[in-house]
Amino acid sequence: MYELTVRTRFAAAHFLEDYAGPCSRLHGHTWFVEAAVKGDALDQKGMLIDFKDLKGALKKIVGELDHQNLNELDAFKGTGKQNPTAENLAQYIYQRLKRELPLNGEVVKISAVRVWESPDAWASYREDR
After folding, report:
1. pLDDT tens digit string along 56-78?
2. 3, 67, 72, 127: which is the annotated catalytic residue?
3. For the structural domain made of 2-65+82-125, what CATH number should be given?
4. Could you tell me which of 105, 95, 108, 119 has the C-alpha nearest to residue 7?
5. Is 117 exposed, middle or buried (0-12, 13-18, 19+ CB in 10 A)?
6. What CA–CA distance (Å, rounded) separates 106 from 120?
7. Over 70: is that where the pLDDT of 80 sits?
8. What are the phi and psi torsion angles at 108 (to 5°)?
9. Which of 7, 28, 99, 111 could crosslink 36 through cysteines, CB 3.0-4.6 Å?
10. Which pLDDT does position 62 carry in this prediction?
11. β-strand pairing of 2-14 with 27-39
């Protein structure tokens, strides 16, 4: 099994609704994002997937989040929507990567997406099948 991982970061603000504590107020983070893909077979060039493709897809998604108030984005805005927590951001980015990446059918799968809201706290999302 092969696995490739890329990492990037973005700056964004958020607040947590229905939360008793300082995170209920608008505040910001430099979020770090790590995306990993896995697969059993390499292509004719000896690659699972081109790092360029993985970086490009992640950069596109992160670019849409950068310097935003995450609560104002459609994915998180409004009553009944999810709070933009590290957990929910990891799931959101994972789902977006599934649409953006050329995964070559079932040959390459996304292993996990990790999101750090600080150097000491992170959450990950993966779909175990």
Report:
1. 999 999 999 999 999 999 999 86
2. 67
3. 3.30.479.10
4. 119
5. buried
6. 34
7. no
8. -115, 135
9. 111
10. 97
11. antiparallel
Rounded CA separation 116/94 (Å): 14
Does residue 46 surpass a pLDDT of 90? yes
Task: Choose, from 23, 29, 34, 72, the residue flagged as catalytic.
Answer: 23
The domain locations on the chain are 2-65+82-125
pTM of this prediction exceeds 0.90: yes
Picking from 101, 30, 28, the residue whose alpha carbon sits closest to that of residue 61 is 101
Residue 67 falls in the annotated catalytic set = yes
User: How far is the CA of 76 from the CAs of 50, 72, 80, 111, 118, in angstroms?
Assistant: 31, 7, 9, 24, 20
C-alpha pair distances (Å), 65 with each of 12, 40, 61, 105, 126: 7, 32, 7, 27, 20
